[in-house]
Specification:
Elements lengths: L1 E6 L2 E8 L4 E6 L4 E7 L4 E6 L5 E5 L4 E6 L9 E7 L4 E7 L2 E6 L4 E6 L5 E6 L4 E6 L5 E6 L4 E6 L6 E5 L5 E3 L3 E2 L32 E2 L2 E3 L3 E3 L5 E5 L2 E11 L15 H6 L3 E9 L4 E2 L10 H4 L7 E7 L4 E6 L4 E6 L9 E6 L4 E7 L4 E6 L4 E6 L13 E4 L10 H10 L14 H4 L9 E2 L6 E2 L22 H11 L7 H13 L12 H13 L17 E2 L13 E2 L21 H7 L12 H11 L3
Helix pairs in contact: 3-6, 7-9
Length: about 625
């Protein structure tokens, strides 16, 4: 979202503004706007290539643009070459002579030769990849995911085998007193072959008998919100830092009084805790210390990051800086330890929506792009005297241009959607974006008062047509949100806040499909969908692939209070695993091949027709 360059002997910060499809050039020394370059699509991330050009991803146009500066720094950048990429390019890195491009919806890592712009490789990855960083020697690429519990490590010389390094916390010990009966709804593991969590182990927990315990073993947690990576060389070792959120969903087959557990449990140990894992680059091995050695307060207190979105390492101070959109903070951690989040160096308040972060070593400051408030914060990092409060950052306001598209209501709604520690929404600090990163889904199945519930994707699916909720029990979107916040222990929003949040949800859009003619196999799959498998009866194209009705397809589990469920939209179904209300099918292929015929009729289809049907569904 923000990169620094030296142009005509001036320090320039380039800021990618996807609200306006613009790159802003800012004079760092004078903190003034130099130029504004309108792009043909929404930018996601930028990188400075070795020859000095700026490369920027166009997330909705599935391309990377080359941009060059002129001698007149107040003139717009000059648009150069365009490279077509996989769907929704989000992140960039330079690895030797190659440009690495990471695509979210395309879940692909591509490499392009910087001289010829020819594609050198393409690697398929797990769902929702977000952040990309290359090792200093250009041999490996590290990828974190918004909705998977691992970091993908790609050997760029041998890309066929992708190494997955699990992150998050396995069973761990917290030494603070805790009444174990508060955890009565979390059992000893899932009791069915279903409830798939792709890339994660089912949650498990050991409970006591109700007495106050000095040590308690808590459940495994799934890593989510992997939006940022940073690297730092300490001695002979190159470290890769992975800020993320460790999530405990509860036992999905046990009835709970809230989402992921009860309100009492949330007070003792929230469902989501901030975490930082560390990987040694050369060996691709996790070196993070035991999770139990870090006090819970370091993960949930005032110095804990909520919803990390950008990170950068400081080689001089050997620290890690992380921007956090959930609580509008920039937090600096000690990068020399195996538990960075336990050693906080400084905390600075920044405006909401801190999506971009760069380190200006020359002026000893961090530069933060806070998109929601349209401000660039220049955060001084001068050493503080004991007891001295951090200096308030200097702010440069970026006015809205004519290409700004969000309504005022949606602007407020976006802030509410990402607000952690907002008691109106949740008692334990969760935000809407905690389970719906980028307005999508976390790929998890949660325990709820109504039974197991898989998080559903919102982007591109929220319409004015009711009903809402997996059981279709809510006639309006507001009614559904009131119900959700009640289950999170929130006190509730005002009417105008509900209207704002609804406006933002309806503004969410998923990545558009690549415009192309369907292949022969996809055309065959469309015929199977409409005429052979009975899919179109409930998933009609004219109604965005849902009939907005509930049906009993005999999918209820022992924990479900009702047997009928809403017909989910199939829009972007290929990117929203797992499937069914309880997430029992880990992949789309499993759904088509292992369902028992009570929903549609695929049992009679040949293997070729099933493959064709799956190919067609992935185009929706």
């Amino acid at each position: 979202m923000i990169v620094l360059a030296r142009v005509s002997n001036r320090a320039v910060a380039y800021v990618a503004d996807d609200d306006e499809s613009v790159v802003h050039a800012v004079d760092v020394a004078n903190q003034t706007i130099l130029s504004r370059t309108v792009l043909p699509g929404r930018p996601a991330q930028m990188v400075i290539a070795p020859e000095g050009t700026l490369r920027v991803t166009l997330r909705d146009d599935h391309a990377v643009l080359s941009l060059g500066a002129t001698e007149d720094l107040r003139a717009p950048l000059v648009v150069g070459a365009r490279i077509e990429t996989a769907r929704e390019p989000l992140s960039l890195a330079i690895a030797g002579s190659r440009l690495l491009v990471l695509s979210g919806a395309g879940h692909t890592l591509e490499a392009f030769d910087l001289a010829t712009e020819a594609r050198a490789l393409a690697v398929d990855l797990a769902r929702e990849p977000r952040a990309l960083i290359a090792s200093n020697d250009g041999a490996r690429a590290f990828v974190s995911h918004a909705g998977a519990g691992h970091v993908s490590v790609v050997d760029l010389a041998k890309p066929d085998n992708v190494n997955k390094v699990d992150v998050g916390m396995a069973g761990w010990t917290e030494t603070r007193g805790f009444r174990s009966h508060n955890a009565r709804h979390i059992g000893s593991g899932l009791k069915t072959g279903g409830l798939a969590h792709e890339g994660d182990e089912p949650p498990r927990m050991m409970c006591g008998t109700g007495m106050m315990m000095s040590q308690t073993v808590f459940p495994s947690r799934h890593a989510r919100q992997g939006f940022a990576l940073a690297k730092l060389t300490i001695g002979p070792s190159e470290r890769i830092f992975i800020p993320h959120v460790a999530v405990a969903t509860g036992d999905a087959l046990s009835i709970s009084s809230g989402y992921g557990g009860s309100s009492e449990e949330a007070e003792s140990l929230p469902s989501e805790l901030f975490d930082v894992d560390v990987i040694e680059s050369a060996s691709a091995k996790k070196i993070t210390g035991p999770a139990g050695s870090v006090p819970v307060d370091a993960r949930i207190g005032a110095t804990a990051c909520r919803l990390p979105r950008a990170a950068v390492a400081d080689p001089k101070r050997q620290t890690l800086l992380v921007s956090c959109i959930g609580n509008a903070k920039l937090i600096e951690y000690d990068g020399r330890t195996n538990a960075p989040m336990a050693k906080v160096k400084r905390v600075s308040n920044v405006p909401p929506g801190a999506l971009g972060l760069a380190l200006d070593e020359e002026r000893d400051q961090a530069i933060v792009w806070s998109q929601y408030d349209r401000a660039i914060a220049f955060v001084s990092r001068a050493e503080l005297k004991k007891g001295e409060a951090p200096k308030q950052p200097s702010l440069l306001s970026i006015p809205r241009g004519e290409t700004f598209t969000l309504s005022d209501a949606a602007v407020l709604g976006r802030k509410l959607f990402h607000a952690s520690a907002e008691p109106k929404i949740a008692r334990d600090g969760r935000a809407c974006a905690s389970c719906h990163p980028d307005g999508r889904d976390d790929g998890l199945t949660w325990s709820t008062p109504e039974g197991p519930r898989q998080t559903i994707t919102l982007a591109g699916r929220v319409t004015h047509q009711s009903p809402f909720g997996w059981r279709g029990q809510h006639a309006t979107l507001k009614e559904h949100m009131v119900h959700t916040m009640k289950n999170l222990g929130g006190t509730g929003l005002r009417d105008e806040e509900h209207e704002a949040l609804s406006a933002y949800l309806r503004s969410l859009r998923g990545p558009p499909p690549v415009e192309r003619t369907l292949t022969d196999a996809e055309m065959r799959g469309k015929y199977v969908f409409n005429d052979q498998a009975g899919c179109a009866g409930c998933h009609a194209e004219k109604t965005r692939f849902t009939d907005h009705d509930v049906h009993n397809v005999q999918s209820a589990t022992s924990a479900d209070r009702q047997a009928s469920f809403i017909t989910p939209s199939l829009v972007r179904i290929g990117e929203s695993a797992p499937y069914f209300h309880d997430g029992r099918y880990a992949t789309l292929g499993d759904l088509l091949r292992k369902s028992d015929g009570k929903m549609g009729n695929t049992g009679h289809l040949s293997a070729a027709d099933l493959d064709a049907l799956e190919a067609y569904l992935r185009t929706l």
